[in-house]
Each structure stands twice: as structure tokens, then as C-alpha cells.
Amino acid sequence: MITLGEYIIEKQHDFPEASGELTGLLGAIRLASKIVNREINKAGIANIIGSTGVENIQGETQQKLDLYANDKFKAALEARGEVCGVASEEEDDFVSFDSARGVNSKYVVLMDPLDGSSNIDVNVSVGTIFSIYRRISPVGTPVILEDFLQPGIKQVAAGYVIYGSSTMLVYTTGNGVHGFTCDPSLGVFYLSHENMKQPTTGKCYSINEGNYLKFPLGVKKYIKFCQEIVPEDNRPYTSRYIGSLVADFHRNLLKGGIFMYPSTAQAPEGKLRLLYECNPIAFLAEQSGGIASTGSKRIMEIDPTELHQRVPFMCGSADMVKAAEKMIQDNPEG
Ligand code: P6P
Description:
It is an enzyme of class 3 (hydrolase). This protein is α+β, with helices and mostly antiparallel strands. It folds into 2 domains: 190 residues, Fructose-1,6-Bisphosphatase, subunit A, domain 1 (Fructose-1,6-Bisphosphatase, Chain A, domain 1); 127 residues, D-Maltodextrin-Binding Protein, domain 2. The strands form 3 sheets. Strands 4-3-5-6-7-8-9-10 form an 8-stranded mixed β-sheet, sandwiched between helices. Helix 1 packs antiparallel against helix 2. The protein is globular, with a radius of gyration of 19 Å. The site of 6-O-phosphono-alpha-D-fructofuranose (P6P) has 10 residues, from helix 6.
């Protein structure tokens, strides 16, 4: 039984130029995830469910736990001193850590501190998603917007915490995907899934079919393809949609499948955010043998222009994503 901390240190040589800072940074994420996990597990009795009545920059009502998680991850990252700034779904603009330690740090973190938080009140799995980059502005100066607007291929590390039937932390530093399960009696993450590999195909497609009428033609064609009865091709596939990106992705990572949140007429850029949802999930997808695209372009090659920009998103088992991409490309919008 090896702990997350031991594993990070053991694999530290995997991080180019690692001087222990990234190790410390991942340790801060580990600490904050335990604090958030504790609060989620008693949300129903801690008077911390429900909304704050306030909307974030996305125009979405912030849940009390959204803000709680945001505060705890920011505090842990600032306290550990490896980070010069953070961008978050819950913050309109990036947050600069201007202490002496902050400005002299070389990493920035982008995060969705509690993704799917509207599911908390109904006891459905939620998650934290994070993405780590080296800053491009000079160490010793305050962080700038360009430090956060980097393409996903520049990620140094990425991962998620899934607060589900068990709490797991899954991350990559570009050397495979590794999963750790929390022992709640000790509050310790133990290595449980080393070098996770996504099956090249699966039986599960995951999309909000309530939006069917608004989907592009190629997406509609792919959904019909999934539903056709072709026993030798394992079809019809099974539809599974939790409505929590981390939970839907995690299931497909283990069992095989495709997750899709395409553009719709009302949301031509889709719903999910490039920087702190799609890029980190894409890094994990690719590092475990999967694919992540907009339907026509590799997610991690998109050059960001705004902190909260959205992109159409599909990811998962390589054969399934390729089939969906072909349907979209063969059926351009009229
Ligand atoms: P819809 C949760 O709000 C989230 O950001 C993702 O976790 C999830 O995949 C998606 O939105 C669900 O969106 O429109 O299907 O409810």
C-alpha cells in the first residue's frame, strides 16, 4: 500500500526540472480535497447545501459548497507557496498570489473547484478538476493573464478528485494516469489504480439527449448509430448520463465509453469550459489512450483567448470518438 505522497516523491524524477515544487503543489491539492470531501460527506447536516443566491461569471447560481471548495483550494495552494496564481470557475478573473513566495513561484493552477455541485443536494457524485502549467511570465513578477491562456499541450499536470461512493484522486504528469483511493478512516489516499488505460471501445455513450433536437446533424446521426441493433458490434450501446463530468468521465475511463457535450443552437460553443474542465480531462484521456476533441479539433491544441471560454467537447475510448468525429465530418450542418 503506497500513499499518494510516497508515490509523487517516488515518481518525482518524472517531472522535468522538478525541484520538489510540483510535489508540494500536488500535496496542497491532496490536502484541500480531504477538507472538501469532509464537508461534502456531511453536506445535508452542515447547512452547506443549496445555493448562495449569487450567480458566478458563468451566469450559474453558486452553490454554498462551490464557494467553500473554491476558498479551500485557493488557501491550500497559496499556503504551500508553489503557485503564483489561480484561475477558477468561481472567480471572474485570475487570482494573483503576490506574497514574496507567490511571485517567486513558477506554477499556475486552473480549476473547477466543485464541478457538478448542483448534484450535491441529491447525493450524486461531484468532482474537483485541476490543471497545472509553468508560468510564461518571469519568476519574481506578478502573474499575468497570458500565464493562464496556454494550450492544453503545455500542461505540466492535470487531474480530478471524484467525491463518489469512494473518494479518488486521479492525476497525470504526462507519464500515464494514476488513481488513488482515500481511506476515510485515516484520511489517506492509497494507490489503487496505477497506469490506468481507457478501453479502445466500450458499450456506453454519455450525452444529455434532452438536447437532441438542438444537436448538430452529425451528433444526431451518432446517437442513432449507438441505438441501432447490431449485436456483433455490441450495439445498441447503453446510455449513461450522470450530469457530472468527472463521474461520467471516470466511468468511461474504467469501462470504456464516450462522453459528449456538443454545441447546440442555443450554445454554439457548447457548455463546458476549455481551460479548467476540457483541457485537464483531455490530458487524462490522452494519457490513458483515449481521445478528446471538439468533434473536429484536438482539444489540447486550441489556443485559448478567454479564461472562461467554452468549447464543444467529446472524449473517451479512441474508436468511439473517431466514429463520432467521422459522423460529424460526414454530416456538416446544412
Ligand atoms: P447538463 C455540471 O454542471 C457540468 O458542468 C458538468 O459536470 C456536466 O457534464 C454538465 O455540466 C451537465 O450539463 O446541461 O447536461 O445538465
